[in-house]
Amino acid sequence: MSETYDPVRIGIVSVSDRASSGVYEDKGLPALRDWLTRALRNPITFEPRLIPDEKDRISAALVDLVDQVGCHLVLTTGGTGPARRDVTPEATLAVADKEMPGFGEQMRQISLRFVPTAILSRQVAVIRGEALVINLPGQPKSIQETLEGLKDEAGKAVVPGIFAAVPYCIDLIGGPYLETNDEVCKAFRPKSAVRPPRAA
Ligand SMILES: Nc1ncnc2c1ncn2[C@@H]1O[C@H](COP(=O)(O)OP(=O)(O)OP(=O)(O)O)[C@@H](O)[C@H]1O
Ligand SMILES: Nc1nc2c(c(=O)[nH]1)N[C@H]1C(S)=C(S)[C@@H](COP(=O)(O)O)O[C@H]1N2
């Protein structure tokens, strides 16, 4: 039986002074696109933005992606550290209806398994309207690390990635029903929230 999945519109935002001015090639947007395409079964329309580390520009991009473009999920990468120009968390909190502190807490826990500097990321996650907005660090490899978590050699999750909680969060705020490829990331929902497959 072939199955159908809800379409989803996802904002991907790379925040980098150097990538946005062409000093180096942006690797953030391709890494986000590749990981999400592997992780989700749903048909995805990506809405990419490459912008410098400017608070007002970042906030404006988030508002546009959620309020005008209709994204139910927005992932940012970069600008979460302590440097003077790192302002992505402030720009995200400025447009939040609600803060979701568990995502940042869990991402720092996961990242500590990879780098001791994990605690330098001030990444946050927030709800705006019917969208979940999550900050990821700027190192392109941190995208897979935080979303997918850490696996052992047999592919079993040692530390679950934060994406496991994303589909149910989006259910709760009125977005599309997201379904994952379990070998990449197994979404968790309470039994009462699991929907049966729909035939095409
Ligand atoms: N969008 C990107 N594309 C490719 N590599 C990146 C990107 N963002 C960060 N990196 C890499 O990760 C490192 C740490 O990222 P960080 O966000 O701290 O950069 P940064 O020092 O703030 O500079 P910038 O904002 O100009 O990318 C960078 O030095 C770079 O090697
Ligand atoms: N998973 C993961 N998290 C990570 C890193 C990483 O390489 N992998 N780099 C850390 C470093 S060195 C910094 S400075 C902070 C902030 O990075 P950002 O300013 O690029 O967002 O994220 C941290 N979190």
UniProtKB/TrEMBL annotation:
<dbReference type="Pfam" id="PF00994">
    <property type="entry name" value="MoCF_biosynth"/>
</dbReference>
<feature type="domain" description="MoaB/Mog">
    <location>
        <begin position="11"/>
        <end position="157"/>
    </location>
</feature>
<keyword id="KW-0501">Molybdenum cofactor biosynthesis</keyword>
<dbReference type="InterPro" id="IPR036425">
    <property type="entry name" value="MoaB/Mog-like_dom_sf"/>
</dbReference>
<dbReference type="InterPro" id="IPR008284">
    <property type="entry name" value="MoCF_biosynth_CS"/>
</dbReference>
<dbReference type="GO" id="GO:0061598">
    <property type="term" value="F:molybdopterin adenylyltransferase activity"/>
</dbReference>
<dbReference type="GO" id="GO:0006777">
    <property type="term" value="P:Mo-molybdopterin cofactor biosynthetic process"/>
</dbReference>
<keyword id="KW-0067">ATP-binding</keyword>
<keyword id="KW-0808">Transferase</keyword>
<dbReference type="InterPro" id="IPR001453">
    <property type="entry name" value="MoaB/Mog_dom"/>
</dbReference>
<keyword id="KW-0548">Nucleotidyltransferase</keyword>
<comment type="pathway">
    <text>Cofactor biosynthesis; molybdopterin biosynthesis.</text>
</comment>
<protein>
    <recommendedName>
        <fullName>Molybdopterin adenylyltransferase</fullName>
        <ecNumber>2.7.7.75</ecNumber>
    </recommendedName>
</protein>
<dbReference type="InterPro" id="IPR051920">
    <property type="entry name" value="MPT_Adenylyltrnsfr/MoaC-Rel"/>
</dbReference>
<comment type="function">
    <text>Catalyzes the adenylation of molybdopterin as part of the biosynthesis of the molybdenum-cofactor.</text>
</comment>
<dbReference type="GO" id="GO:0005524">
    <property type="term" value="F:ATP binding"/>
</dbReference>
<keyword id="KW-0547">Nucleotide-binding</keyword>
<comment type="similarity">
    <text>Belongs to the MoaB/Mog family.</text>
</comment>
